[in-house]
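Let us begin with a simple case.
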Amino acid sequence: MTNTAGETNLVLWYDQPAAEWVEALPIGNGRLGAMVFGDPKTEHLQLNEETIWTGKPNDYARKGAYQYLDKIRSLIAEGRQKEAEELGMEVFMGNPIRQQSYQPFCDLYLDFPEINAEQVNNYRRRLDLEQAVADVEFVHNGVKYRREYLVSHPHQVIASRISADQDGMVSFTASLGSAHEAVEVTSDGQGLILRGEVEPGGIRFEARVIVTTAGGKVSIETEGNAARICVFAANSAVVMVVGASSFVNYRDISGDPGSRCSDYLSALAGVTWEQIRAAHLKDYQALFGTVQLDLGVKPLDKPTDKRVAEFDPNEDLQLIELYFQFGRYLMISGSRPGTLPLNLQGIWNEELKPSWGSKFTCNINLEMNYWPAEAANLGICHKPLFEFMKVLHQTGSVVAQEHYNCRGWVLHHNTDIWGGTAPVNHSNHGIWPTGGAWLCTHIWQHYLYNEDREFLEEYYPIMRDAALFFMDFMVEDEKTGWLISTPSNSPEQGGLVAGPTMDHQIIRELLRNCSAASEVLGVDADLREEWQKMIKRIAPNLIGKHGQLQEWLVDIDDPNNKHRHVSHLYGLFPGEDISPHLNPELAQAAAKSLEFRGDKGTGWSMAWKINWWARLEDGDRAYRLLTNLIQEGTYPNLFDAHPPFQIDGNFGAISGIMMMLVQSHLGAISLLPALPQAWKKGSVRGICAAGGFSVDLAWDQGRLTAAEITSRFGNECRIRSAEAVEVYNSSGEKTAVRSEAGVYAFATQKGETYQIVCQN
């Protein structure tokens, strides 16, 4: 079947309004987000502003907690885990023990009194990923209505255009509401003003709404603590919403949201819908249009929710394309320079008490959010994470001193807008000191893809100081002589222990990256020597009695354990400790651990498993996990389902999709390393590879038919291939290639494109 509905390929579409939040369509610009429900009679846009959180500036560190560190370690070493956890709860946890929560902002309601829902037909609700525009169309009493919605990054406005194909048929009222209690809605005669605060002494916020029309009449009605804009008999109307909070930084919430809103509106004075839309498209498409994926089939002629519910992995391959590009859309819409990083729900949240506080969870979720950034040609969207790490570097240095009496900085398994870095929630999983080290791997990855020396100079001190912490923190295991991490936890199971495998994998990677970065910058030669010696002393990856990769120093893994976290496989991905090309025995052990855990799990867990199987170069198994994720872990609007909604699975899955097609770790590029048999024919353009390369390729019946690699920086290019490789430049001239152990290397010139030909 082909799509006969006249849609472009990259459109989510539905034949009815959203009945619940996970059916609504997300739009955003990194700072402002909206969920569009699309009801013909009473339209609802649930709005977010990324800095509206509970709480206020706070230092979470517990003063002098380090005095109890040796006792906790001793209790663990003596096998008295419960006592160690109890002592940890009493003297070692953050103050307070819970962090704060991301909050909703407000709600925009557009009520159309002349629309009778029972007389609506030809209804269509859409999200066009190529334009980042949501729209609603329907016919009512012979009149065709259209509503368009976007969130502009250049103009910092949520804008909507409402029109009809007959003059004078647009009549509605616009009003504001909020889930928060301390809110008032007034008017300044020009539009609506909503003012509120999250809690006394906490973050304050403000929204402004203005409406312009072509034809008709506009008036404002006020009554008590309410106001609304009334539009009557217009040809069309444009509704604009701006918003801001009092948040300045993690130490300062003294900003003036009203002044900020006034500035946004001033910048919009005299700006037309057409100008807003054109600037929005130019800004968005410059990012979105850099990568294309084509699996060789047309969309099925079904609404997106039905395609998800009835997904056939052999027939509806175009849903994979849509899902992939939806993930890239979410990153562009949720993470822009100058914003906070993506939290557990990106920037979209309707709840006052969202699951897990919709925080920045650092034992997988925050990192997973940014796994695809570089390869998906969205490195600019990675920058909010790095900026946020500057805050964590500061707050984490206090926690390193107070909790561990160590140099450097540390981050545990969660943080919030206030930069909390102390252990929280419970000692049996909150005392996990490698969150900051994991985040530091993103700094090095960004450098590997972009080779921006100024960037590395700016962020290397954060990496170095994370390494300094572990130089002081790690201790020698009395039984083995290895350096181990204690106290810690293998996220979120097994309780408080000494020496979880994941910690050692992360710390090794941190030290390797710091060594490489210091060499690039020509600094810290003495430290580099110490790091390299330390790497050799850290407890290694171990294979247990079941043939599995051990999760802990002791061989206690349960083959029947189906826990969502499989943290000890960090070294397989995103780490580089384990690979079929590096240490096949450990790769087999990792595969055994994956087999034990199974192919089910939460949305984000299945997403991580896609990446693992892709790294193991088992494309069919990776696709099985992607199929499971779509069938069992995806909401009608393509949001990832933990459940509930967590955005990390969306990003983890598209990372896995790219890794089925292109991998570039361990210093070489692999083309089609994990291609599923179901993807018989296709192409991808614009995927980025480490070393500063862009990859375009095509395949047919599982065979590479075309491959081009463009060199951004003129570095040597290395191709990992089981077949001999020939290389030609853009003039068709053969390029010299040297080969060693299945890797084919050739020199490149900056800006040149090379054709890769595999010899059958």
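The second case is a distinct protein. As before, the sequence precedes its structure tokens.
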Amino acid sequence: KVRNGPEASLRRPPPPLDRRMRQPVLAAMLLGLASPSRGASLAAARASRALRVRSGRAFASASAVAKEPRFITTPIYYVNGQPHIGHVYTSLACDVVARFSRLDGHKVLFLTGTDEHGQKVEQSACKAGESPQDFADRVSDTFRALLPLYDFSADQFIRTTEARHKEAAAALWSALVESGDLYLGAYEGWYSVRDECFYTEEELVDGNAPTGAEVEWVAESSYFFRLSRYRQRLEEHILANPDFIGPASRRNEVLAFMRDGLRDLSVSRTTFSWGVPVPGPPPPDGLSHVMYVWLDALTNYLTALGYPDTEAADFRSFWPASLHVVGKDILRFHAIYWPAFLMAAGLPLPKRVFAHGWWMNEGEKMSKSVGNVVDPVALVQRYGPDPVRHFLLSDVTFGADGDFSEKKLVESSNAKLANELGNLAYRTLSFTQKQCGGAVPAPDAFSEDDLQLLAEAAALLPQLRTHVDSMALHRYSQGVSGLASAANRYIDVQAPWALKKSEPARMRTVLYVLIEVLRHLALYSQPVTPRIGAALLEQLGVPEGGGRSFAAVGEGSALQPGQPLPPPRIVFQRIEEVDEAEGGGEAPPPAAALTAALTAAEEAALVAEVGAAGERVRSLKASGAGSEEVGGAVATLLELKARLPPDHELNAKPAKKKKSKAAKA
């Protein structure tokens, strides 16, 4: 069940455990690596219980408690235009919740699709010289194509032109007739064809819709839904269920909109024919009515579950919907009209509607006329799905407006995916391959630092669960990044490369801890960056199946000493530069991105960092440090130099010195 709750910040790691936990036999028992005596077993049990308590019971199996099924939906996308980055953003949010929920033991149905009726579609088809059905078929395919491009794991892709949907929409209309909530009248007022929405005089802004769309005066015969009848019931429901609309700012907007009452809603049109015909006997006005596109479109959530058969297996399992994710511009339809229709039809209301913000481009609203619309297909072909997914769900507070920037996308990918996670994995696994025979090392006694990091890794799951359930999706990547940062600090402090001769048992223990933390990072990465998560799990020799679900979090599924590890490889390459002239290409591996121009102050600061990094390399070499430590310092130096302009003097290659004849002799 999706619940809202306080956005729990990452708590500090649990305090170190009793020193008795550091005994080798107890540490091994905690990870299932030894068979102790009865006395030792009791001591280990007490120690294990202490570890569970102090880590927030993080080692408990994710499937220990029966989980409710989750029905997660995007709005169905209107086929009057091509997909844009906003469509990707909505689908991505749903995909992350769906993936997390499946890994966490929930049965999930993730629905998306296209809305294909209405006056705007009819007009667009006419301009394109196509029939409305042919036009809808063609554009719907462009939305469907986003699923594999972005690794969206939708279970159903629904279209409102399907026969099953027309049957469901007609059934809902009949239910509204039976409830006495439909009546025939005449509508006269402002209507936006682009928005497929009616507006009052008071809502217009400079003669246009609040969205900026043009409006036209419409006068026609229409059926009306008695929306006014449901204002009080709907307001009471919203107030009694604070999680029903999120975030809180959007909930307040809906309540404010309803404060002065709700007007009955026109729910049929007679001036065009591309829609679901109104069922029943011919109306008294003798005109042919089609259903208002929003009443038609919203019904898709029921269609996908088998409605009007409310005894269908999917309907019984998944309705009411757990979560509708929508853009803030269509919140009114989902938070007012949709629940009112359901109340009238005697159906349960969805558990939650969450509205996210809009994406700007470099501070400007995206517009075809300005030429700054982000093409989601070209974007994913350039960078691959994981970098785009990670950026969109980590850069901006989910629910607020965001500013899209390819520069920030590249910087975020390099800092978090390539350096923080990818470099950690490659350093650890490469060193393990060389020093431990390409197998999981056997740990010796765990130190307090070891136990603290292991506990922190397992304790992250309930925090991530809170972030997903509260739709604080931006905090998810931040949480995973926090664990990766802790692991990087750990490897720098423990310095396993310095232990290989003096303390080989300690070296193996440090590597074991790092490999276990990497396993957790791989598990947690799967909802947002599924390709990176899968690649890292493969690097750790974790087969597909239950070992990749959240039931594997904690000690019960720890990697066993001696388990072979595949040859290490880089799970994510740095993005170096982008050739703006290229229009795309294959998906991963991602192409490179141009380094943005630095200000004088930024360049001076970066030059200072390069100088300090170079000094560290020289110092390590002079002190006789091991090749692994020197190599890490050199990698940092090269990374900093790569951020300088290509023609900077620090990037200039030194001229080769010609040997003198005397030297040759």
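The two ends are 82 Å apart (CA to CA). Residues 1-64, 579-597, 653-665 have pLDDT under 50 and may be disordered.
Keep these points in mind for the review questions at the end of the chapter.
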